[in-house]
Fold this protein.
Amino acid sequence: MVVRISTGKSIQGVVRYNETKRNQSMAQLIGSQGFAKGVENLAVSQLVKRFEMLTSLNRRTKTNAVHISINFSPGEKFSEDKLNAISKSYLDKIGFGDQPYLVYQHQDAGHPHVHLVTVNINREGKRIETHNLGRDQSEKARKEIELEFGLVPAEKQQRIGPSLQELGRVVYGKETSKSSIHTVLNQVWNNYAFTSLGEYNAILSSFGITAYRGEKDSQRYQRGGLVYHVLDEKGRRKGVPIKASSFYLKPTLKKLERKFLMNQGKKDQLLETVKARVSGILPKSNSLDQFSENLKKKGVHLVLNHTQEGKIFGATYVDHAHRIGMKGSDLGREFGAHGLAERFGLLSAGDRVPKVIPTAKEVETDGLSILENRIPEVVATLDLPVQFSDSPFQGSPFGSRKKRKRKKKDQKGDS
């Protein structure tokens, strides 16, 4: 049994994330506590309102949303009753047994797992302590539940899905392209979060493949088509393009766009966590190359967009430890292309446009110039026995009007 816990500021974002999965037939609402009969028929706003009845009792506590995933070994099979019993027992043991909560069973991965949604403000308006929750109460609860329900222990479960090293990079000419691409697509689709084609391709580039819409004046682009290519060692598309619709997963552009919306909640959840990891490395770097290398040691892959003239116009960060891709502008101006160029003295004196002449390691491919065309040497596996983050979600997915304007302005320099 593998447990992951996240806390944040947007219960609405967490509920929406799970309800979107449910609307896409990728999850089911199988249990609840503290809700009236017929909870499965309530709208997102109604579900959120129940939680806000408690959070409104304590306005001082901003980080009040709790999102927990309980993951089981791929070989284990459970009824809804057993999943609910495990969920209830776990919440009781970590001090959330009296809280209202929702239990979602997800079918978007190759292993059984549930997501628990609740808040850490009780009916008296007091905050339930979450500091070191994953290390202390959760670990103890996990071990007790594994014995109580006869579950595969986390220590023996190894990991859910292959590690990045095991999944590896698709090598052109050495493997059957379609089957190799499908293996990568399946793992990225089920384990990574991305909200744009640029973020999706930044993640895929780590595994040696890319999704390609075609030239803007081509029929494929105009019709919303999408094909997949294997990348060679220099990051160039090779081989016959394979249509997205021909894969069993059918990762078409239309399906990707729905995925982008569905992943927004996860992005809101992890934004501050990724930003903290990246911002801790930036001050210790004296050049863009050094920054990229330092990121790589922490399992973060920096992907830059280049024009044909060598100017960088966008930066994307792929955090393999948390399995998510994020544009630099989402993390902050200083992490976008212009901010990096300004920091490392790469701005053109005349027009103040970021300009970088690609090095031997940098190769343009569909607008993506990959600083390193291989998987980071030091990178976390796809799954950890217990993962707990004290970082908050990045507010409401809707955000404030002021924030939206600032973000829109930042996006002019990033893609």
